[in-house]
Records
---
Amino acid sequence: MAGSAIFRQEFAVKGGNFAKAGVVACRIKGLLKELGLDTQIVRRAAIASYEAEMNVIMYAWEGRVKLAVSPGKIRITVDDRGPGIPDVNLALTEGYSTATPEMRELGFGAGMGLPNIRKNADTFRIDSKVGRGTHLEITIHTNGQKP
Amino acid sequence: MKEKKHFHAIHITKDKCIGCVRCMTACPTKAIRVKDGKAWIIDERCIDCGECLRFCPYDAVHSHTTSFAALDAFEYKVAIPSTVIYGQFGSATLPNEILSALRRVGFDEVYDPSAICELNTAAVEEYLHEHPRPRPFITSTCPVVVRLIQRRYPGLCPQILPIEPPREIAAKILRTILPKALNLPSEKIGIIHLTPCPAKMVSINSPATLKKSYLDGAISIRDIYPEVLNALRKGQDDALMRHLFPETLFSGNGMGWSLSGGEIRGFKSHRAVAVSGVSDTMRVLDQVESGLLQDIDLLECTVCPDGCVGGPLQVENRFLAKSRILQLVDAAGDRAVVDHKDVSRLYHKNFLSFDHPVIPADALPLDADPARAIAKAQRREKIFKKLPRRDCGVCGAPDCWTLADDVVRGAARLADCPFVKKEKR
């Protein structure tokens, strides 16, 4: 019984909606805290979900963030409809960014988004189709700590 | 190590409370409920910000600050006022007159805090120089911010910059020198802070970073105001003379400390940002927790609007007080009264440091068991969907979401909602 309990929540993110930047990550963070998870785990999930949410806001047209928490594991999946990433490996390079000057002006687009997500996750999977969109799936184990 | 059970400075007087929902809806941490026609505060959630005190129209929210009469317990009484006090008596009254009026009111000595504020800024800069990480650091001056971080942002505790605020540093200095100078045991010397802030009392009674506070109490500016006003009126003839012989040299950088941005105004080589107001502070701390603002060296956060000058226990309206203090800041200019070499020496002796780091408060998860916490979160979603989402507060919780939360925590019943009851009938 205990192993089957999964808490699921879904959030919509609209591309270009900078006014609501970080709202989803904040909700996720609040939920994880209420579920009694370790501070460091919550922080990693908060950073990863913030970056993922921002990627949708900055580059995609719309997206959905799905959170699933079971005892032992947090899974965050993000599906967006958007331009996709032509070269995923390049996008995973620290400092690589296609952000516009306007985005950089706002303090975004330092090219740390995807690398930062990967750094804070225990498993990381990304799948992107140019012209269609991007599927991102990460998990964070809540029992063991990653340095 | 867990934080021990703490003292609160804010209390609701049952006789005056009529059970309206104003304090409850104003509370930023959702710490108030109305049950059986009276408001009550959930201790673990309260951060002593004083928002309820501002919003209560019935004068039913009280702060436990030190009474004037309590000073009689001390043989020698010292006051360290907040610089907010300089903004309380109009633009014709100079700080020196206020300090002198405080002496006539019954303090044996009164110390202007602006020099110590300047000292603190210099020490904080030195700390930032020596500690390139993490970023941003957060100042500890506002005791409510410290409590907010302990409760809502426990992961940010290590980012609180471990230099004591000016009120404690000033008291510590006086504790060191006065007993010898006066030949009195330390406990006979009462060192009292004069403040517009109820939470200072909390930081004195249960300090978050010291074994024991160096202060003996805090008198609210609101309580001492009539006495000072009276003393100022009686001393009008002397005032002119005092204008001509100023006794205290005020620090330009220290003078503006009670205004948002005042703590960082004297910064020379670091990027610092000032945030004020409780909801804006929470928004920014949320961003820091998501890994943002790492290009900022220091965040000055104060939960009162415009900084301490917006404290709920001051008298003058905060805009006038602010304008008066800005005049004084202008008049003092960049005048420095503290030698940086002295600051550096005290800093390296650890004289200005916390006794211990800020310790996170007990978290309040839905359940200690992860599986049961998940089940409760699922149930809470279901309950929330049944609620009308009008956030009217009639059930005794500030909004529908909090009622759903209380229900799964066993602190309320779904039937407390008057709309749900109707549907069932």
---
Amino acid sequence: MWSDVAQRDAAAPATHDTQPAAAAFLQVQGLGRSFVPGKPVFAGVDFGIARGEFVCVIGHSGCGKTTILNVLAGLDRASAGHVFMGGREIAGPGLDRGVVFQGHALMPWLSVRRNIAFAVESRWPEWSRAQVDMQVRKFVEMVGLTPAIDRKPAELSGGMKQRVGIARAFSTEPKMLLLDEPFGALDALTRGTIQDELMAIVRRTQQTVFMITHDVDEAILLADRILLMSNGRDRDGAWVPGGIAETVANPLPRDRTRAGLHHLPGYYGLRNHIVDFLVTRANPASQ
Amino acid sequence: MKALKLRAALLSLLLLAALLGIWHVATLPGPAAARSAGLSAEQIEYEKMMGKDPGAQKSTGFPTLAQMGAAIAKQLRDPFYDNGPNDKGIAIQLAWSLARVGLGFLLACLVAVPLGFVIGMSPLLQRALDPFIQVLKPISPLAWMPLALYTIRDSSVSGVFVIFICSVWPMLINTAFGVASVRRDWLAVAATLEVRPLRKALRVVLPAAAPTILTGMRISMGIAWLVIVAAEMLVGGTGIGYFLWNEWNNLSLTNVIFAILVIGVMGMLLDLVFARLQKLVTYVE
């Protein structure tokens, strides 16, 4: 059943194989997850992420993007397959992976400062109060929220809340960052600004990132590689699980900006390829 | 907003004045001395001997406003006097009641909050304990009194036990509900930060569930204050409930009304304290 997909992969432009296992910092092997026995949402998912690489996953609702992220975060267990990070298998949640949640997940009874301090104190319990506060202020400044540091989340806008979520994930200095549609709930203007900020921070810190998105332009702007996921479906009475149908390397120069993105040669080809995939090959639930 | 407050206060005062006015009119002394006209001195003497003094003012027995005011003033002038078992100042009686409520409530907190935490965290225990809670919760706390008196053999401690048993349920149920409905996101954050269970319970679950827990405590305190009056009437000895019953036996309606007022004001103050605490732990999402 996978040969079909593989053939179509061969015909697609800008496609390359997953990176060799030796080079990959994060290695996912034969990952599958089923909530209904015999009908896995996805199966046989293989990919690797190199150190410092920014990988985006794009696909329709229900294809299992968030489930893969939760498995990488250790919050969910896979039904099949393994995930290795730095040569060690991931068995549960851990401080080496920072997570930015879809709904920011800030604790509403704590100020911005206390929210981030909670993460910093968890990472370095032996640190003094002053050390913790220094780290907190450093990362609040990084997302430009110093004036709002003592406000509660309810007093912040959606974009500011998501910035705090990003600062919290960065503040523990994880080896890898997992972002679950972090900008899904934001308006276009705010989304653009935070995308730029995130890109600048990631480029500066050489952070390894795995990010889920619905937004094709967001993926093209941020990602070095884009994983295209298809939904599981019934075909001729047999269940075909979803999975990564194709991996697209981003050929655009790494110093691209949001404003100049659509002037770059190759942008429209890449964009059309991904949109075509989503429209015709990803098997959204409605088809 | 301010104008509304002012108008509400004014209306409250008007209502109070109206109530006091009705009271005053209802307890006005009836026409007196009219019946003694036309009676000879012997006849008056005879009537008096029969207990029907025609010169006496006919009283309904219900205190007038002036009598009430005098009684309140007298009670409040010396609230701490102690003339033996049946004659103590109102403050001493109130202190007894508050001590029983406080002790029983505190014991209930110590049991209900940790147990509610465990129930809220474990769906297994929640299901296992649910039938017990459902059966025990609707029992009137006073129904436990004979059993308490028999096993504890001390009326004062039995009062504390009754307060304990009536305070425990709302707190237990609210704590379990609050803990069980902590948002998954916050628990996921704690998990990805490798927060240890005790720290997670104190720093994430407790503050998240605190508003619900405090609501349970507020309900418990309200019930405890209702129950202590009845319990003290039953077991006697000391306390505001006993004071009330004792003054009924003394046929002193002024003191009965005074006790009712004190119970009401004290209950309101207790509720205010918990409302304030609730405000402290409430967060906006």
